[in-house]
């Protein structure tokens, strides 16, 4: 049967079933029960496109909707979790390859619904919104929303939310009648959920508009209604919403006019957020409505995510109308230059983008900026300082705050001027009017003279000229202190803007670079004073590093010049900057700050900060420089001891780590090009030829060498911070290696070797190295044998709970030593054992579902079941031998003991689950239990349960010792020590809490073993010894020694009988301690 015909038949069948369920609601509930049962056995058959479509059609009935959506959402999240669980373990991938992805199935339903399945569409829309609302991004308490839209979907909840958006987008594309309903619901949620994150809805709206801007003209009234509420929405939401509907503004005049009307009202609003929203809206309009004759900016177009639609404006509006429209908006924006600092700041940050996208507005914008800066510029050539800083600050009563962000204004002027000189001048033709050209040259000359004058006078100025010397008050508790903090940050910002300006126009002139260094000296003096004051007073702004005004593009240019420029003609001028270690450190630390901002927010300040392509290119350039600097000049060579702060090498390494993380978060698809850009030897390779594993392995080898050098260096030269960073860099890069590749195996072998040969005593480094080892090992094969060897080393290092026994020294890993064995390595080993237990538990659940499947293909299922059972038993067997070592180890009281007891309880609970599985098997089939299960039970009886009871006794003894010690203190200092004693008692109570749970878990295990013995006719209890630990128990050796003492006293001194009997109780209480002392 042809596919389309089959789909029509399925649609008809669904329609008939739905009509029957409408007559009898119980049938609907029976359908849900049936599918839930089937899903337990095999999710593939339970949730196929047909059954999902059927459920969604039934879900239109409100009585069943909640049940059906809960079932579908649970299935989706479980599928995503299973997929994530499998990706992290090679052991699971080999045993249980994932054949089924519920996400793909649901999207297939959307595709199939095009074949006349109209009854499914409403269910699809409701499911999409339900998923997006149930798993939306969470807002931390009192914190900022953690935006994930710019990164990849990592958690199952994020994947479910992204699936909801995909369902709605695809349904929107396929079904025309329901489009207006989807659009209306999305817009309603953007408005009503203003307090919670709405980025996922805005992303969806953006994709909807891109997919059909012309179709949306029919629903333009809904968009214009939304605009009426712009003043009441948070600024982030307004900006996102306007970017999303921007393509619609180009094709619908009514929408554009409605928006302008709303923005005009908002610009005079009393609410600051409303005015900021108006500025954001006007800037967006200026960027996107080109005046005829503006230069093409495709080479540097600002990306607004995936929401851009390149439409030709002139098809809708003539150029004269556009010019008048843009100039009218500029007039409105000029009024904002007298408003609060936040509003002005938005304008200064937005003008550069407007200029670059709409070059015909250059003259108007530059004139606006010129008139603004003239308010603060002092033209007298000998007057210091050159700017009126007091005009930038406003006082209202006791409060002092910033009125004019002068550094941002200068930064805007500097970038606009640079762009104007580079672009407009090159394209100015002969036909330009002389008057206009004279005017343009006028403002350009004005700006250049002004910036040169400010530069010259800023270098001459002393801190006293700004009233900012060391004696100045910088505390935030006084008005003067706040004013001085604002002044300091303004002056530092101005210095940075001028550094970038002078470097760019200097063309490697020695004089200009001396100016750059002079400006940096001013910046650095202030920075040092703020740091010094911050050390004394925690409430100073300088405690947090002020955000740098250098642009990302300039940072990459500066670093390349400082570290990689070998041109003979540049050598003399660059020597000026290279002579200052502080300046080099500053350049690298600004690069680190920029990368950090990009990693956290997906964009940076300054020009092209929101352009992913430009950011990617800058990152590649910065990485090349930092990598060269770190690998060429080791940190040991640097004389960092004389100066405070991190060495340049360490800053480079930190920057590299952040860049590698950022690449994997934001540019995962472009990692091949990134690695290609780092490899200078292979510049001409085709994109398809790039082998990511090989390129990543090459980079890994460079950091491996650095790490080996750290380990082989003298103790005084060992740098813990650098070693930690190197280990984290290696962990990050190892994610780029293909687990099946030879390079991955080599890296794993090297990591094992490092752990075996280096007696590392630094706790954080040890933690990082072992975590890396476990993560790598899990992707290659199960790490249980590794856990056993580490457990043996911990046992040998810490000694046995029975002090008479000398543990055989079998050191596999030198990293396990007296400093690291407990708690560090012990907790890591137990944490990894927990993961193995989770995997085993997951497999046992899968076993149970396979066991309940009675389909025809039983031989295939039987083979799979046997493979799973074998895998589970082998894992548990090896894990038991690791626990066998740990429960005999003299662990210190505290977290290790607590975690081991809990871990043992979990182990017995999972052993019980396995036994229950075999009880079920014995009920349904006549098969005998496998020999390997018998061996596992025997192992648990001989190597674990008796040792567990001994360990419980050991734990109780060390706790009774700490209690008796506390009691002695209590007698000496009753009142003073009361609090300390109660703390000790609470701690003992907390740490002994897991003991009853462990005993219960052991007894449950033995109980089900008895059941299995009866069912299978095999006596499994023969391997179990009688349990001894109870709340009341008789310690035979203790009883014997007490009786002997008692008899001796009786024989020697009969009259003192009463005294000896009264002494028995304390003797008995103290006996375990005595016994241990005697054995010493």
UniProtKB/TrEMBL annotation:
Ranges where the record places region Disordered: 1043-1080
FANCI helical domain mapped to chain residues: 26-112, 297-531
Pfam families, sorted: FANCI_HD1 (PF14679), FANCI_HD2 (PF14680), FANCI_S2 (PF14676), FANCI_S3 (PF14677), FANCI_S4 (PF14678)
Location of the FANCI solenoid domain: 120-283, 549-773, 786-1040
Species: Apteryx owenii
One GO biological process term: DNA repair
Sample GO molecular function, one term: DNA polymerase binding
Domain of life: Eukaryota
Protein name: FA complementation group I
């Amino acid at each position: 049967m042809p596919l389309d015909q089959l789909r029509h038949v399925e649609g008809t069948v669904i329609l008939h079933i739905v009509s029957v369920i409408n007559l009898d609601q119980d049938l609907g509930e029976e359908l849900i029960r049936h599918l839930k049962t089937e899903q337990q056995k095999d999710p593939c058959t339970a949730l196929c496109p047909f059954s999902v479509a059927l459920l969604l059609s039934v879900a239109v009935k409100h009585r069943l909707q909640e049940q059906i959506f809960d079932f579908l959402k649970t299935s989706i999240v479980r599928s995503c979790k299973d997929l994530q669980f499998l990706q992290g373990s090679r052991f699971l991938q080999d045993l249980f390859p994932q054949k089924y992805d519920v996400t793909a199935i649901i999207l297939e339903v959307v595709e199939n619904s095009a074949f006349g399945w109209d009854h499914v569409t409403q269910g699809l829309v409701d499911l999409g919104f339900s998923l997006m609302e149930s798993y939306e991004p969470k807002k931390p308490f009192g914190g900022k929303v953690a935006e994930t839209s710019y990164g990849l979907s990592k958690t199952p909840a994020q994947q479910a939310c992204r699936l909801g958006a995909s369902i709605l987008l695809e349904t929107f594309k396929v079904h025309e009648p329901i489009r207006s309903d989807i659009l209306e619901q999305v817009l309603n949620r953007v408005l009503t959920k203003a307090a919670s994150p709405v980025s996922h809805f805005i992303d969806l709206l953006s994709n909807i508009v891109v997919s059909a801007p012309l179709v949306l003209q029919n629903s333009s009234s809904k968009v214009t209604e939304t605009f009426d509420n712009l003043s009441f929405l948070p600024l982030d939401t307004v900006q996102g919403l306007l970017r999303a509907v921007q393509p619609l503004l180009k094709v619908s005049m009514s929408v554009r006019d409605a928006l302008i009307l709303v923005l005009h009202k908002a610009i005079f609003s009393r609410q600051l957020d409303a005015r900021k929203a108006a500025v954001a809206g006007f800037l967006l309009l200026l960027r996107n409505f080109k005046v005829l004759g503006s230069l093409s900016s495709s080479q540097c177009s600002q990306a607004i995510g995936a929401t851009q639609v390149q439409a030709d404006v002139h098809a809708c509006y003539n150029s004269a109308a556009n010019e008048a429209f843009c100039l009218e908006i500029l007039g409105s924006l000029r009024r904002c230059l007298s408003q609060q600092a936040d509003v002005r700041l938005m304008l200064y940050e937005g003008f550069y983008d407007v200029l670059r996208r709409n070059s015909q507005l250059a003259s108007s914008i530059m004139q606006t900026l010129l008139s603004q800066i003239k308010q603060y510029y002092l033209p007298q050539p000998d007057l210091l300082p050159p700017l009126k800083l007091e005009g930038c600050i406003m006082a209202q009563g006791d409060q002092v705050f910033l009125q004019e962000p002068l550094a941002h204004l200068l930064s805007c002027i500097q970038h606009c001027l640079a762009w104007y000189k580079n672009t407009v001048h090159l394209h100015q033709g002969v036909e330009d009017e002389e008057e206009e050209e004279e005017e343009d040259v006028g403002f350009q000359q004005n700006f250049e003279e002004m910036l040169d004058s400010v530069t010259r006078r800023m270098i001459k100025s002393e801190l006293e000229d700004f009233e900012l010397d060391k004696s100045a008050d910088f505390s935030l508790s006084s008005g003067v202190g706040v004013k001085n903090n604002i002044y300091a940050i303004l002056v530092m910002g101005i210095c940075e803007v001028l550094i970038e300006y002078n470097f760019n126009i200097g063309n490697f002139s020695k004089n200009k670079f001396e100016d750059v260094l002079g400006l940096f000296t001013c910046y650095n003096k202030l920075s040092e004073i703020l740091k010094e004051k911050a050390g004394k007073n925690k409430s100073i702004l300088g405690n947090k590093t002020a955000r740098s005004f250098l642009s990302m593009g300039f940072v990459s240019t500066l670093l390349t010049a400082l570290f990689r420029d070998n041109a003979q003609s540049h050598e003399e001028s660059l020597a000026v900057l290279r002579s200052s270690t502080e300046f080099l450190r500053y350049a690298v630390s600004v690069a680190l700050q920029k990368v950090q901002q990009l990693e956290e927010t997906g964009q940076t300040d300054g020009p092209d900060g929101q352009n992913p392509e430009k950011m990617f290119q800058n990152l590649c350039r910065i990485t090349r420089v930092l990598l060269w600097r770190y690998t060429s000049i080791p940190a040991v060579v640097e004389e960092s001891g004389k100066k405070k702060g991190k060495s340049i090498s360490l800053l480079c390494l930190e920057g590299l780590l952040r860049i590698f993380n950022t690449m994997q978060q934001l540019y995962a698809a472009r990692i091949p090009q990134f690695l290609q850009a780092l490899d200078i030897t292979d510049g001409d390779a085709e994109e398809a030829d790039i082998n990511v594993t090989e390129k990543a392995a090459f980079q890994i080898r460079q950091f491996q060498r650095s790490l080996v050098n750290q380990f082989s260096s003298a103790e005084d030269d060992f740098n813990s911070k650098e070693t930690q960073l190197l280990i984290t860099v290696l962990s990050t890069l190892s994610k780029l290696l293909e687990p099946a590749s030879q390079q991955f195996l080599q890296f794993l072998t090297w990591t094992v070797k490092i752990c075996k040969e280096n007696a590392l005593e630094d706790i954080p480094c040890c933690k990082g190295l072992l975590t890396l080892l476990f993560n790598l090992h899990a992707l290659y094969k199960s790490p249980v044998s590794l856990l056993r060897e580490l457990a043996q080393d911990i046992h040998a290092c810490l000694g046995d709970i029975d002090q008479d026994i000398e543990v055989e020294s079998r050191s596999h890993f030198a990293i396990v030593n007296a400093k690291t064995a407990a708690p560090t390595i012990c907790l890591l080993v137990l944490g990894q054992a927990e993961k193995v237990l989770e995997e085993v538990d997951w497999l046992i659940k899968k076993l149970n579902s396979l066991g309940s499947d009675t389909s025809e293909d039983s031989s295939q299922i039987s083979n799979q079941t046997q493979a799973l059972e074998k895998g589970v038993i082998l894992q548990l067997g090896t894990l038991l031998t690791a626990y066998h070592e740990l429960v005999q180890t003299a662990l210190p009281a505290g977290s290790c003991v607590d975690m081991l007891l809990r871990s043992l309880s979990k182990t017995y609970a999972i052993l019980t689950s396995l036994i229950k599985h075999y009880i079920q098997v014995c009920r349904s089939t006549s098969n005998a239990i496998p020999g390997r299960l018998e061996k596992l039970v025997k192992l648990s009886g001989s190597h674990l349960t008796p040792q567990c009871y001994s360990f419980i006794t050991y734990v109780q003894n060390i706790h009774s010792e700490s209690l008796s010690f506390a009691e002695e203190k209590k007698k000496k200092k009753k009142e003073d020590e009361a609090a300390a004693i109660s703390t000790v008692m609470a701690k003992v109570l907390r740490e002994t809490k897991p003991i009853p749970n462990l005993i219960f878990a052991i007894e449950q295990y033995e109980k089900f073993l008895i059941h299995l013995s009866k069912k299978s006719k095999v006596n499994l209890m023969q391997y179990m010894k009688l349990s001894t630990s109870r709340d009341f128990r008789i310690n035979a050796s203790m009883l014997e020694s007490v009786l002997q003492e008692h008899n001796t006293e009786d024989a020697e001194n009969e009259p003192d009988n009463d005294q000896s009997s009264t002494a028995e109780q304390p003797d008995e209480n103290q006996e375990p301690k005595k016994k241990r002392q005697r054995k010493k």
